[in-house]
TrEMBL record:
This protein's name: Ribose ABC transporter permease
Subcellular location: Cell membrane
Pfam family, one: BPD_transp_2
Stretches that traverse the bilayer: 25-48, 60-85, 105-125, 132-155, 189-207, 238-255, 275-305, 312-333
Alphabetic keyword roster: Cell membrane, Membrane, Plasmid, Transmembrane, Transmembrane helix
Its membrane topology: Multi-pass membrane protein
Amino acid sequence: MADLDRGAEPASWTFKLSAGSFHKLSALLTLALLIFAFSFGNAAFFSINNGLTVLLQTSVIGLLGIGMTMVIITGGIDLSVGSVLALSGTITGLSIKAGVPVGPAMAIGVMAGAACGFINGFVITKMRITPFVATLGMMLIARGVALQLTGAAPISRLGESFGLLGNGSLFRIVEKTGGIFPKVVFPGIPYPVILLAVVALAAAYLLRRRQIGRHIYATGSNEEAARLSGVLVDRTKIFAYVLSGALAGLAGNVLMSRLVTVQPNEGVMYELDAIAAAVIGGASLMGGVGNISGTMIGAAIIGVLRNGLNMAGVSAFIQQIVIGVIVILAVYVDQIRNRR
């Protein structure tokens, strides 16, 4: 336990982390090649406005990916994040309709996501149900509750303040032209991008500098050895799932705020994007390997790929095929790494 608290790492951990760094470098190179290829094919791709659009599209995937990375490092999986996103957004919208101010209402939505994560962690650790089955059940439950609460109908007229988080920006510069619409000199840095950066830095600090982060890695590397070393494995797993649920709730607030309407059908297949971001960024589905910076690169790859393919006129169905192939290749590389 003392070694874990001091952050000492066995040789196997050191090998995994160095291999993970190589995987992250490969992902970064892939991202650079994608940006070059799409900008070469379309000059508008490299514009400031399109760059900010890509960052906006990546913010939701990134938030989900951070929580998913925590869970994957422990050796688990969370298939419920897309449905929890929808449920949290729905609860936020219903709270606003009930007269709760926007800020507290969004906090309630995040807490609802955290509660779903706690249930996932409890079922997995105390009832000994595999993460795949437990979170698959929560995926169906959360989606069903969201649809039942709203009658499968969107919730609108939530006020201008509700759309501030998703559509506001920092350092926005406009110039009055005398017409109806002012000229936008600089669109500003979107709030979701700033939020993602803050959350990513906090999560990276937690994983690398705090005791709970070392325990998360230890649990995923060798659960029995971690338990014998004094790590509270069940508590560590529950923490990871609670964090994943809370970040899904936060992502739900961001997405619904961008739409300025609560859509209980949103978030379908988002769990696959989150898993893809983590795996492409170097997280191992075997557990014990992964980092936040790699996940951010993975989320950026998905965002750039979808944006570039959209601008090239490629259908959404082909995009799913491309991303699916990339995920398979990333998992294959991870398997080769583990065999070595």
